[in-house]
Amino acid sequence: MSDNPHPLRSIVLATASFLGALYSISLASAHFNRAIRDCKDVKRRPYVVTCTACKGHGFYICKLCQGNTTIEWSPLYDPVVINPCLCPTCEGNRVQRCLNCLGKSHNDLKEMLDLLLFQATKLETLTLRTTRLV
User: Fold this and answer.
1) Is residue 36's pLDDT more than 80?
2) pLDDT for 3
3) Its pTM surpasses 0.70
4) Nearest CA to 44 among 116, 108, 113?
5) Where are the domains of the chain?
6) 55: phi > 0 → left, psi -120 to 50 → alpha, else beta; which?
7) Which residue, among 116, 53, 121, 65, has the nearest Cα to 94 in the 3D structure?
8) What secondary structure does DSSP assign to the chain, as a single string?
9) DSSP 73
10) Start-to-end Cα distance in the chain
């Protein structure tokens, strides 16, 4: 007979300790990444403006179903029967993430200034085109 009555016990213990170490490392790195992201947000806070579309919530009521979770839909042009279907925009959650701030509830001032500059240049080129046509 062998000296070790449970030959797989050492393999199971080694595997469990290895998987536990992997889990703890992944958990620590996730917390570290979150802490770095929070520090960056705190540094950026003086340069942000509250989103006007969602009023700083990050979400707003679904515009397709108006918060009812279902829409009336029929595959035919002149419907005989109208079927209630789950809203494809909010997927039944009644709210959708703000598309203006992407759910962050604020806009970066730099991004807003870049957008305004882009719109101003677009408007300037449009007015130049119309004056050339006249």
Assistant:
1) yes
2) 65
3) no
4) 108
5) 1-49
6) left
7) 65
8) --S-S-TTHHHHHHHHHHHHHHHHHHHHHHHHHHHHHHHHHHHHGGGEEE-TTTTTSSEEE-TTTTTSSEEEE-SSSS-SS-EEEE-TTTTTSSEEE-TTTTTSSEEEHHHHHHHHHHHHHHHHHHHHHHHHH-
9) E
10) 104
